[in-house]
Amino acid sequence: MRRILDGMARTMRESSPPRATALRQLREAESGDPFSILIGTMLSARTRDESTAGAVRALFGKYPTPGALAAARVRDVERLVRPVGFYRVKARRVVEVARIIRDEHGGTVPDDLEGLVSLPGVGRKTANCVLVYAFDKPAVPVDVHVHRVSNRLGLVSTGTPEETERELMRRVPRKYWLEINEAFVSYGQSVCRPVSPRCHMCGIRGRCAYYRERAVRGS
Ligand code: SF4
């Protein structure tokens, strides 16, 4: 795994100006604040990075704490997060989550998987992102990029992100978990793209099952 992560980093350095993933940017912009990272991750689902960043800035500009967001009217929150996909549902959810954190968790975001997935609208992927990006706790958040890149490399052979998460946790030593999401998401966005992966410039093609298969088929 070390060689894969280093090969990805080398290819990224050589191929394009470095660009942090939305979650890394969120962590840096919000100084690692768990509540902002939780709400930002919820807003980021099925949304372009730029739209998420704008909505997070607008939302926390007006409601910077769980208490402030908990007291907000959903209609006002909808207006602020309008650029993100499914903004009406998400506005309702983030206010609900803020209220639960205020009323049931003393204003503090839970720092374990069980507590996080008990919040409405928070699934395993979001919960794992919060563990990694807000609390530096080893977890493997799997989105479409992590799922695709892991399968192409042959690290796993799975049909769903949930299975991929399980298999990566089983096969990859825990000491690498914190690095996987950031590395695989940025690699999947710029090199191992969904359509037309840029295998010609990929520094880990010697370790890639998909590349080997294509070479055998001569395509
Ligand atoms: S060789 Fe191609 S398919 Fe394999 S990891 Fe690199 S870019 Fe992705």
Can you give a write-up of this model?
- This protein has 219 residues and is mostly helical.
- The protein folds into 2 domains: 94 residues, Endonuclease Iii, domain 2; 103 residues, Hypothetical protein, domain 2 (Endonuclease III, domain 1, Orthogonal Bundle), CATH 1.10.340.
- It has 13 helices and no strands.
- Helix 3 packs across helix 4.
- The chain binds iron/sulfur cluster (SF4).
- Iron/sulfur cluster binds next to helix 10 and helix 13.
What's the short story on this structure?
With 219 residues, the chain is mainly α. Helices cover 63% and strands 0% of the residues.
Topology:
Blueprint: H1 2-15, H2 22-29, H3 34-44, H4 49-62, H5 66-70, H6 74-81, H7 87-104, H8 113-117, H9 124-135, H10 144-153, H11 161-171, H12 177-190, H13 209-217
Jot down its keywords.
219 residues; mainly alpha; Endonuclease Iii, domain 2; Endonuclease III, domain 1; 2 domains; 63% helix; 0% strand; binds iron/sulfur cluster
Report the portion of residues in β strands.
Answer: under 5%
Note the run of SSEs as H and E.
HHHHHHHHHHHHH
Distance N terminus to C terminus? 27 Å
Helicity range:
55-70%
Number of domains: 2
**What CATH architecture label of the largest domain applies?**
Orthogonal Bundle
* Global geometry: elongated
Radius of gyration: 18 Å
CATH class of the largest domain: Mainly Alpha
Q: What is the residue-mean pLDDT, rounded to a whole number? A: 92
The bound ligands are: iron/sulfur cluster
Q: Mind summarizing the main beta sheet? A: none
* SS-based class: mainly alpha
The number of helical segments is 13
Would you report the number of β strands?
A: 0
- Looking at CATH, the homologous superfamily of the largest domain is Hypothetical protein, domain 2
CATH third-tier fold name of the largest domain:
Endonuclease III, domain 1
Uncertain runs: none
